[in-house]
Write a structure and sequence with these properties.
This protein is an alpha+beta fold. Among the domains are: about 70 residues, Nucleic acid-binding proteins (OB fold (Dihydrolipoamide Acetyltransferase, E2P)); about 70 residues, no CATH class. The longest helix has about 60 residues. The N and C termini lie far apart (about 150 Å).
Length: about 240
């Protein structure tokens, strides 16, 4: 184990001295022959690094390194330490290089997967469009075959009776709902239909204002607030017109 200390005393004539050890009260003996570069005279207070060794039953400083006067070997070692990168830097560089490689590989994999997916989508779209075109073509062929099978159809001509029935249906459709209901009731009860072309609601409500039974019947069935059917039997002005 290396210890640190400083030269406390040295006798040039006798060639030995003592080292004051850092953190220890006992001084350690050393001899000039154990110093590297012993041609340079030790100075009081010079910093040393050393180990305690045994010599003929006594302890002294050995493997001494003069920190104020480094040897050529020590200088070369210090230079190598400065030039050579630390292990942590090497590990960091290796880790960074590895991370970069992994990132590049990941990007390449994603790009390849994206290309394959896009190609698959393109194939699906083209196939779908092709099926749609084929279906339209088949439908056109079916229509043409049906036309060929049916041939030319003759134009339908309505007879006179058919025209009359059609006109009647159109007239019935254009009539007000109240008139259609009234006509239906009259038809069920065997009554004659009331001609509505010559009458219209003009605000008259009493039977004395009616000029005919037919007019009174029209007002009763089609006009609001009439007062000409006292017994509510659907027959207006029975006494007036002898009904």
């Amino acid at each position: 184990m290396f210890l640190n200390g400083k030269i406390k005393s040295f006798s040039p004539s006798r060639g030995f001295g003592f080292i004051e050890v850092d953190g220890d009260v006992d001084d350690v003996f050393f001899h000039i022959k154990d110093l590297p570069q012993n041609n340079i005279e030790p100075k009081i207070g010079e910093a040393l690094q050393f180990m305690i060794v045994e010599d003929q039953g006594k302890f002294k400083a050995g493997n001494i390194q003069r920190l104020n006067h480094p040897t050529e070997t020590q200088k070369l070692g210090e230079l190598k330490k400065k030039v050579r990168p630390s292990n942590s830097s090497v590990r960091y560089n290796k880790a960074g290089h590895k991370s970069t490689i992994i990132t590049v590989i990941g990007v390449i994999v994603i790009a390849v997967l994206g290309f394959l997916t896009y190609g698959k989508y393109q194939s699906y779209t083209i196939e779908k469009q092709h099926k749609a075109e084929q279906l339209m073509l088949e439908q056109q062929q079916i229509v043409e075959e049906q036309r060929k099978a049916l041939g030319e159809l003759p134009d339908q001509v309505l007879t006179e009776q058919g025209k009359q029935n059609l006109d009647a249906e159109l007239h019935q459709t254009n009539q007000p709902r109240s008139e259609r209901v009234t006509q239906s009731i009259d038809k069920q009860n065997g009554r004659l239909p009331v001609s509505t072309g010559k009458f219209k609601c003009d605000g008259r409500t009493h039977g004395s204002q009616m000029r005919s039974y037919e007019e009174a019947l029209y007002f009763l069935r089609n006009c609001p607030n009439t007062k000409m059917d006292g017994n509510n039997d659907g027959e207006p002005c029975e006494r007036q017109f002898g009904k």
